[in-house]
Amino acid sequence: SSGTGGCALVMPIEAVSGLMAAGDDGRFRAVAAETPFAARQVLFGSYATRALLDLPEVAQLAGRGRSGRFSLLVPSAELRLVLGFREARQRALALLAEARSAWQEGRPGAALDRLTELFETAPMDSEQLAKAQQLRNELLTEQARRSAQLRRDLEEANFFETRGGYERVASGVDELIALYGEQNVEDLAGLERLRATARERLQALDRAALAPQRQRLTALADAFADAGQTELEKIVRSYVARHLPDAPPASESGAGGGGSGNE
Fold first, then answer.
1. 8, 45, 88, 244: least CB-packed within 10 angstroms?
2. Average pLDDT, the chain
3. How far is C-alpha 203 from the chain's CA centre?
4. For the whole model, what pTM was predicted?
């Protein structure tokens, strides 16, 4: 348009329920409809009303809803409105197929990575977007089920004070994070605290098991000291210090990060 510094796109309010925007990187993210945001591309509508606003450069946009309508204020006299998404649909189909294959092969982390790529780079086709969201829900539901089982395992291990139970929790958290990838774990901090708690319990069990041996050898070293056998005393005390310490080394007690706490 000429003679103006901008324009407004007016649409039904329903068209912005899933408003998405992208900057120069071309990666889309959800945005609040009535909060100002910077974007070069804006995706709105769904299915047959899907449309993409494409601007020459990143601009600060603002929207306002009133009486069932939504006005998107665009500070540019030049824009392109895209209504066909054949290339994006093909890309979405390929990414969705890769995600399903990865899920069937037992690689949920790779599946979620492909879905994230779809959501961020090819969300134009509403049908494929809905299928991708359904698959993502299935993947995260399974992740949540496994996380809940690990929490129950820790409760059981606390009740019975079993070393095997704590080992199962610690290794189970390691496996879950490795399987999904840290970037795809919904409650990463919670799982890390769960693992730290299990490891602390294991260290406490180890200290309790070693205490009688430490007491016996310490008494032996004291006896050598009383008898003037300083060399034998040094040998025994050195063994105790190296193999039967009162507390685990700092590198072990800090393993796993995430602090401690009983989940």
1. 8
2. 90
3. 28
4. 0.80
Q: How many CB atoms lie within 10 A of CB 226?
A: 9
pLDDT tens digits, one per residue of 105-116: 999 999 999 999
- Type of residue at 79: L
What CA–CA distance (Å, rounded) separates 176 from 29?
A: 27
Contact 188, 173 (CB under 8 A): no
Residue 173, burial from CB neighbour count under 10 angstroms (0-12, 13-18, 19+): buried
Pick from 142, 93, 136, 100: nearest CA to 116: 136
pLDDT at 212 (0 to 100): 81
Read off the DSSP letter of residue 58: E
Closest to 173 in 3D by CA, of 156, 155, 161, 185:
185
DSSP-based three-state secondary structure for 23: coil
CA–CA distances in Å: residue 135 to residues 101, 103, 112, 177, 259: 12, 9, 9, 19, 33
